[in-house]
Protein 1
Amino acid sequence: MDYTTHPELLEVQAPHRELLDQVLDKWSLRVLDELCGQPMRFNELRRAIPAVGQKSLTTTLRRLERNGMIERVVLETRPVAVEYRVAPIGDTLNILVDGLLRWTTEVLPHVEQARERFDTANDLL
């Protein structure tokens, strides 16, 4: 679809903001990054992301699963285990997130300079 002839497709409405908030938050990005590498169990994710608490990780996994970004798979083992893996929709984010991370790496020095100029100018007031 051509966004120049259909500018309404680029409007950021409440559902768009909600989805972006839920997918691009701090823990969701980390979880998706880990799961893009390989399926993992809950405790493997906790070890891979030591700063996340159990409650935050549980909430993040449930939200990502609800949005179709990851899948929760019950493994037929003894004892029964659960594994999380990236779903096809979540996998489409991989290229976009990599692009955003490259962008932040490229512009961060310029952003830091702008912040310093701003802070210096506003300290004088």
Protein 2
Amino acid sequence: MTENIDEAGIRVLVEEELISAVVEKHRRFLEEYKKEFGELDSRLSQVEENVKNVKNFRIQMEERKEVLKEKRQQFYHQTEALLEKEIFPKLDPITANKLKEEFKRIKGQIEPEEEQRLKDSFMEKLRETIQAAGPGENVLSLVGSRMDEARNSNLEFKEIIKSEKQLAEDDGSKGEDISKGKSQHKWLSTKIKNHEEALNYWEKLKI
């Protein structure tokens, strides 16, 4: 049988060579899996850290939204008080009521673009009214300034809403990445453990 193998050019590995080959195979796999595990572990840690930061950012943005809503209401309240004190009493009831209705629409829950359009229209009519009634340019300037501040608060509020929608989409993709990553992480951990045990076994036989 040995002669036939020799004639065929096939070399039979002795036990020591066979064990060395198995040991080398496990070492190679172990090195590859550990490298992949390390890279994945680092990537997962970064993603999870990002998710944590986004969660904290969301909390801050929720608090900021509440502040902005209150600021907008406050600015419009100040504007309304100014109008009621300095302008509306000097107008005829019909004109005053029309301006009050327009102002009511402006301070409602509307988009900043619509708010700007209505505010410009309101200020134009108010300017004409002031010129006729004579309350003064200073009052008009104060009204316009307060309304601009209110709109800026609304604009920032809407920008936060838009950012939150984008974050929600990003959260979905990150959630999938974490889920897949953890699955691969667990698989690699099992493979590393298996190869370490196998390597330990075969190295003992090699001695």
Protein 3
Amino acid sequence: MGKYLVIIDETEEARKALRFAMHWAQSSGGSVQILAIVQPQNFNAFGGVQATIEEEARDRAEAIATSAAGNVFSESGKMPAIAVKVGEASRIVRDYLADHPDVLALVLGAGTDGAPGPLVTHFSAHSGSLPCPLVILPGAMPMEDIERIASA
């Protein structure tokens, strides 16, 4: 029983990756892990203002992750694990994978317009050093196809 790691944010590609991972976990008896990443704020201000900005960003990431977890639970009956981390995204994901050797795959969705996205770009270039397979879902792939493939 493995775990499928999805990096969640407000994008359609993240929602597709989550649905794929959820269906894959259902068909394999595994589970989903949701990781929300809060980018460090490059805003230099008075300490109180900086702390407020960072807290609001973390609260937003937690709300997105909790909502995504609720959707998975309502559809699958299994509550995914949730983690919210602050820092540089590729480093956070690498550290998370190192700390969770039971992750069977990192599931990412590529954007539909322009570049596929920073995490897809980074990890596709460094996939040979990952401790698990990297699954990249094409941005233009319809949700029905994603669910069909994941459930096969």
Protein 4
Amino acid sequence: MKSDSNSELPKELFQRWELDYGMVNGEKISGLPKSPSNDYKFKRNGEYLLYNVDETYMTGTWEYNSDEKIIYTKRDDGELNGKVADLKAESITLIPAGKAVEGTPFENFRFYYKPKTE
């Protein structure tokens, strides 16, 4: 029986994640903003928080596709803005959606997150 429930997600997903590093076309991206900027926090109710450098945050929604094993994130206006793949207790991978700078499609970017420790 196919289920779109979130029960197969690792419980560790529901915590705050900080950006560990980014890659584009196989090369590490340098100079990424440090936590709390770009921290993500996934909530069980299908919301997520995306933090700014001053600890304020934007909210959006997320949806898990159990066939693809991917979380789709959407802005509050419903526009798809990313996918979270490779869900593990110790790391998640964010693939942004949309256009990036200088004509490089965001789909070539990978941002690797680790659990935020105090």
